[in-house]
Amino acid sequence: MYPVPHGGPEPVLLQIGDMALTSTHVILPYGQFPLHGAVWTVQDSTQVTEGISTAGIVLTVIFVWFCLLGLLFLLMKERRYLGFVSISVTGPGFHHTAQFPPGPQSGAWAAQAVAQARAITAAAPPYA
Predict the structure, then answer these.
(1) Which residues are listed as membrane-spanning (predicted)?
(2) How is the chain split into domains, by residue range?
């Protein structure tokens, strides 16, 4: 681990899960490391499946006996998100990954968060 520079704690510029970035350090659950030279990656392993919803099947079974329009309930679709989105940071002496649940906007959010982290990292001064 590297010591905290004198002059007081730095403000956190970006928080991604359990990772925090200041202007010179990345703070992880197991320590604080220099931000200069860190590499950020994002991996979207989200899978989207679409199928007939359970409510549609139940309503079809109930209403098919009353009228044949009950079959229209089979058109009710349900979208499910499976997998995860992971954001990783690697640098001299450390590697950390945070995983986030999938969703319709999670991949875009993760890409935007990593873009911000890369911009902060590019502006970080070399650690002396």
Answers:
(1) 52-75
(2) 1-46+83-128, 51-78
Residue where the block lists tokens 């681990």 = 1
Q: What is the mean pLDDT of the chain?
A: 85
Tokens of 96: 């950390």
**CA torsion, points 97, 14, 82, 108, in degrees to nearest 10?**
-120
What is the 3-state secondary structure of the chain?
CCCCCCCCCCCCCEEECCEEECCCEEEECCEEEECCCCEEEEEECCEEEEEECHHHHHHHHHHCCCCHHHHHHHHCEEEEEECCEEEEEEECCEEEEEEECCCCCHHHHHHHHHHHHHHHHHCCCCCC
Region of 37 on the Ramachandran plot (φ > 0 left; ψ -120 to 50 alpha; else beta): left
pTM recorded for the entire structure: 0.74
| Residue pLDDT, tens place only, 31-75 | 899 988 899 999 999 898 888 888 878 877 877 777 777 777 777
How many Å apart are CA 123 and CA 103, to the nearest integer?
31
